[in-house]
Amino acid sequence: MPMPTAQRGFPRPSSLKVVPGTEGAQAAYPYYMQFTDGDDSRFWFYNSMHFPEPMSAFDMVTAEAAYCALGAANTRVHCLPTTLGIDYRILNGRVYIGGNAVTDPAEIARRTEEFKQRAFYYYENWERLYAQWREKMLALIREARQLPKVDLPEFEPLEHVRAGRGIASNHYLLETYQKTLEGYFRMWHHHFEFLLLGYGAYMTFFAFCKKAFPEISDQTVARMVAGMDAEIFRPDEEVRRLARCAVDLGVQGQFTEGRSAAEIMASLEGAGVPGRRWLDELATSRDPWFNINVGDGFYHYHRSWNDDLSMPFAGIPGYIRLIQAGESLERPVEKLQAERRQLISDYRELLRTDEERGAYDQMITLAHRVFPYVEGHKFYCEHWYTNLFFNKIREFGALLAQHGFFAQTEDVFQLTHFELESAIVDLMTSWSTGSPARGPQHWPAKVAERRAAIKEWARHETAPALGPVPDIIDDPAIVMLWGITRESLDAWLAAEDGNVSHEIRGFAASSGVVEGPACVVRSVEEISRLKPGDILVCQVTNPTWAPIFQKIAGAVSDIGGSMSHAAIVAREYGLPAVVGTGSATSRIKDGQRIRVDGGRGVVTILQ
Amino acid sequence: MASGGIIGWFETLGLGDRAEVGGKGGSLGELTRAGIAVPPGFVVKTAAFEEFMRALESVTPVRARVAALRAGALAAIQECSNELRSRVLATELPPGMMTELTAAHATLCERVGARDVAVRSSATTEDASDASFAGLQDTFLWVGDAAATLDRVRACWASLYSVESISYRRDRNIAEDDVAMAVVVQSMVDARAAGVMFTRSPTSGDVSVVTIEGAWGLGSAVVGGEVTPDRWVMGKITGEISVREISDKHIEHRRASGGGIEAVAVPEERRRSPCLSDAELGELRQIARRVERHYGCAQDIEWAIDAHGALRLLQSRPETVWSAKDAQPAARVAADPLSHVMSIFGGRR
Fold it and tell me: Which residue among A155, A304, A308, B203 is least crowded, i.e. fewest CB within 10 A of its CB?
């Protein structure tokens, strides 16, 4: 029975139960991530944008480190006037988050003064600070790459002894682990150093456009601001480049559908000079551009292209066919830039007064200044650094597996980062005492229990939001990063009441209308099911999926705004796309015929 | 005025001639001269109406009778309308005027190689951009020969004395001496589809979109509200189609066998199919931009497209509703350009 609007809300956190049989796995998450009674009075929503699947115990570090840094930037560094940080909780492996609004006008005024001194300084010195940021990130990446290999020799190497190192290898395990973890937490501070300010400047221009041109599409505003040579385009460009190299070197025949990357590489190795030259080109592309993972950087199993070449290799045959059909795969950057300039000046001309045109100039100038960061940071943070991080943790997993702690390397991700440190200390101790480690008796059962729990949790739908619905959502972080507004919550509530129609609304991400069979993909592993002409329906898409965009007819996602990378890539491919629908993956059945109207942001279920 | 002054060909006219050729005539001339495709034609200027009315007034007063009517006195208005309309329709055109009109009609037919014309009222009032008044006068489509054209010219004049027209003027206290009517005679577009378009959103006032509405057959079905048109909203700059509503267009206005138009049922297979292709929409958008640039303000436009895909404009007039509302700028230049971000970060409370 629907309640009156004024009292409506989502289930209270305390009414949600841990899935029976998974209590042990739920208890593994640290106490400060568990819901408590006081949480019932607050509004929470499931962050399915970043965490569309249940989180393993270790992967929760991605939420922990990110929210530590996001909150620090908002609350303490830039002092956002109306909001502090983001609180997070985990239940059944699902990450719920809640804003922390500042509502006292005196406090907002005080924070506003702080904000102007800090944020405006960043805006004024953006280019210098961003150049410095890149140096810091590259240094951090260098440090991570230079961490010693995780290893525990039977006897300390003789050269250590002769050099008088005095510190045994077990100590370096702890040091390397702590540096790995520390670097990851540090990376997230870099990530948020500019993020909210960047989005804010973009949103300022966006809001102006929506006011001046109420029916302007989100993607048009995005096109006025988007850069042409952002890092995020590079991995896909490298795949195109490799396709071209294959044709130029005459080895294109090696790239047939269905052949694995390993097979192709092995036969290229034996294909004489051209084959080896192509492999050299591949090596150039891989470092750093294949350090892009097939997810959004929040799951250990979203491996990078470097770790799993099947994704980039899957794109090569299609690109070869295009080249053979006489198509240029070059992105016409100059033409795109000229089009962008024209677009900006055409809209400017439509404004009514010089006052408005002046304001427009001021806002778009700032949006252009901040945008290289907005587009570029993900490659360094969520992809490159994150891959190094998870792969380093894998080294610990391998070592612990070797010492009987786990059946397999990947089990390491079933421990929280605290537990992993304890396991490392256990191993260090055992190595030093010569007694058996305790871990092999302790961890395998827990790992099995947690793996089973994650499987179970994935089978359960989770509430999109919890707690009372706020009257207004005045938190720029929530609105900008998650696209959540009072209107979108009302739509979720309507869906809860069963007021479903055949239409699903979202953000108009990339215009065009297309009909086709839906391929509902719930995890990255499933994307191999996509057939040409399918419409991809997923929780969140990712720029690394770009090579498969050449074979699908359209894309729909549960979460994401018009500036999400999926939207950017879809526009590049001229592929109709609707993002941020909230519920497409649960409402659309695999194989159903659907129509995607990317210009209106509407998906219609046709059968 | 000499009788040689009663005809004005579109290519010689502009908005500045509205007093003599009415709003519609002025607009068609303006568009023609701006190089926009308009079905060729001429205007029977207000001078002809004046001359005709002088003949009428010399028998018994016309304008004074209307001016004496009280607003809202429906019975009196009805009686006056019946009488004046039948007088207009029963009175022959002066011989010189008849000759000149017949000659102009012949020239037009020769130019386009077709006999059928549209005869359309083109009234002049104080408020030339008042669209609602324009809608009260008659338009006659598929008029088949010179004699019928002459009849229809008088019928247009007579429509100035319809109950609705008289009531409209009495309600607004418009002086009868300020009212005159020109009549447009232009070659007929055998419309496959027709409709209207707005260079400014009728719903939001957005100047960055073009809203296009159209249905099968002649535009009269759309303008008269007899059919729910297809509707598209396109980015004026980008051409992106953001709204695409294809409606069930159950009837269309077509040429009737004995001249004039009739409403006929649209065959099932065409009812729900779009009356314009995306390429045609794109062409209309380009025309909308050109017209708007030419006038320097937002326009409401009537268009038609024939079986060969040739687009013609039938009317363009300034948009009035939103133009009157424009007030607050979306933002103003700020002394500190960075202060704009406070609209996002400063909170709404």
Answer: A155
Do residue B240 and residue A217 have CB atoms under 8 angstroms apart? yes
Write down the H helix ranges in A249-309. 261-269, 272-289
Distance CA(A563)–CA(A225), nearest Å, equals: 10
Q: Using the beta-carbon criterion (under 8 Å), do A214 and B205 form an inter-chain contact?
A: yes
DSSP A545-556: GHHHHTT-SEEE
**DSSP class of B94:** P
Map tokens 């010492």 to a residue: A403
Paired sense of beta strands A535-538 and A513-521, if any: parallel
Q: Is the peptide bond before B337 cis (omega within 30 degrees of 0)?
A: no
Of A81, A216, A220, the CB nearest to B347: A81
Per CATH, domain B3-187 is 3.90.1860.10: no
Q: Write down the ipTM of this complex.
A: 0.83
Per-run averaged pLDDT (10 residues), chain B, 349 residues = 72 93 92 96 95 91 90 90 93 93 96 93 64 65 93 93 87 83 94 95 91 94 86 93 89 89 93 96 96 93 94 91 78 92 81
Contacts of A254 (CB under 8 A, 6+ apart): A246, A264, A267, A268, A271, A275
Token pair, residue A229, equals 């040579």
Domains of chain A: 231-330 (no CATH), 502-605 (3.50.30.10)
- A531 Cβ contact list (under 8 Å, min separation 6): A519, A551
- Provide the shortest C-alpha distance from residue B272 to chain A (in Å): 16
How far apart are the C-alpha atoms of B25 and B14, rounded to whole Å?
Answer: 8
CATH superfamily of B191-325: ATP-grasp fold, B domain (3.30.470.20)
Q: Tokens 């009075």, residue?
A: A41
